[in-house]
What we know:
This protein is of the alpha+beta class. The protein is built from 1 helix and 3 strands, in the order E-H-E-E.
Amino acid sequence: MVKIKISYETPQELEKIVTQLKPLGVSIRYPKTEKGTYKRVYIIIK
């Protein structure tokens, strides 16, 4: 299992990354709070 923390500004940036990693069987977890300029997402590859 691999855990990746990604910071992004626009949903389009996140969509590009998720599209690339989708064949690997990823699960996405969003943090409870979002502060600041950059948004975060945690991707887990099984």
